[in-house]
């Protein structure tokens, strides 16, 4: 059991950081292990936001040397970015081990991602013009507080509260997943994928990388693969219902859209609220009501339902 | 296999029981004239004209349920629950006569395990509403989530909007009425009771149903294992009209177009003894 939520403002940017925090905090009981946000701000021309980490939270308890190692790893990442011609215009230390860089780069994004992730302990959480992907251990208020999300303004976002069932409690296994190496695509998932290893091997044969053993990462890789092949977001969501086995409800966010797919059994919950200027969806209505307190009309999407909303 | 003989049951004389479940299953029907058959020994003596209110704004589910119980103990027979805020597990386990008016929406497991109250909900309900309901009526003005009326045993459960998947899963009695559409696997493993859906039904309708009856007013995506069309008799039509009119849900074109779904009874094995039981006989 995990909790997922999504929100899209159709009439311009809103307080998406604060809203997603409220929604995910309301879903804390569905998964207290970790919380993740994929929120979309206002893009700057020719500028990317790179979020990465160089250690797990639990690594900090592994000894005194880890603090020096984190500094060394970050310095190595900086060197590698420089060697690729990446211009870092701003740096922020969200935590001791997770960082946010604003960068200018017109080269191969996959090469950049591979080169950075080759550093020990390094994982790129996201690259995008608008996407900022934040995930860490703890509930929504803790993660939001640590990463200063309350003031974040944006058009849309998705989020996840995780109850670890298939893999470890660590940041690597937390959602959302960035659809490596494609800009601005993130996925959150509630469910279990039963043909994970078959599909993972198929994706690996096609050259995609997996950073975790969490079955949900497959959906991000699968979506990225389909979009790279020229499929639309709607097509990818629809084909996933046939290709992916198991029970799942998942959300995909891109730079300008939010998508939903439910499996053929409709075994995982989703409640949907739709109005002219706002779409909110979550595993439980109580999350939607945390941002829209008054009485609203909501409903459950049916089995095999695919929906896409654009900003 | 011996059929169970029901003598003198008013509801049978009225033709309200079409199930043919037989064999070792036991049935018990209450006699309307029987005194003391409708209340629990520790039930509350309530007065419908005594009205109380609960504002759930700053209360957790446990507090709300305890407050409802306190009001019933104080003789309140009509309770208005305000600002439920889609919280989970509200108004559960009410084993008493009560008029409960819920102004707003409920989350998961709302009104579960109830036996006797008449509940009206102005909003929507989440998953597993009225699970294991035993008697009473529950009317929801808007939509409902999945597993609506799971394992209900009695009473009328009405949703005027559309409901999610697996409606009436494992239901053992009572009536579920849906004004709109229902999702996949509705009536899954249904054992007894009736389900009326005025709109469309998703795939695998009535999958593995043992008994009971499903009436669908719209399109059926497909039928599940052992669910087969039945003949819509005049008695069915009269019952449908009577039941739907109680909740102002009779379609404009009447009920003649409804499709009746019953069990094909290929999965019936009530009289097949378990291996351990065979040993006892031998």
Task: Report what the structure shows.
The complex is a heterodimer of chains A (311) and B (282). The longest helix of chain A has 19 residues, at 65-83. With 311 residues, chain A is an alpha+beta fold. Chain A folds into 2 domains: 3-39 and 140-310, Glutamine Phosphoribosylpyrophosphate, subunit 1, domain 1 (4-Layer Sandwich), CATH 3.60.20; 44-128, Alpha-Beta Plaits, CATH 3.30.70. In chain A, α5 (196-205) packs parallel to α6 and α6 (216-228) packs across α7 (233-243). The mean pLDDT of chain A is 93. Chain A contains 8 helices and 15 strands. Chain A is globular and about 50 Å long. Chain A has a 6-stranded antiparallel beta sheet with strand order 7-2-8-1-14-13. Chain A has a 5-stranded antiparallel beta sheet with strand order 9-10-11-12-15. By secondary structure, chain B is an alpha/beta fold. Chain B has one domain (48-267): Glutamate synthase, alpha subunit, C-terminal domain (Pectate Lyase C-like, 3 Solenoid). Helices cover 13% and strands 23% of the residues of chain B. Chain B is built from 4 helices and 11 strands, in the order αβαβββββββββαβα. An 11-stranded mixed beta sheet of chain B has the order 1-2-3-4-5-6-7-8-9-11-10, with helices on one face. The longest helix of chain B is centred in the first third of the chain and has 13 residues, at 61-73. Chain B is globular. The relative contact order of chain B is 0.09. The mean pLDDT of chain B is 89. Chain A binds chain B through residues 264-266, 269, 271, 284-286, 288-289, 293, 295-300, 302-303, and chain B through 85-88, 104-105, 107-108, 122-124, 126-127, 142-143, 145-146, 161-166, 183-185, 202-203.
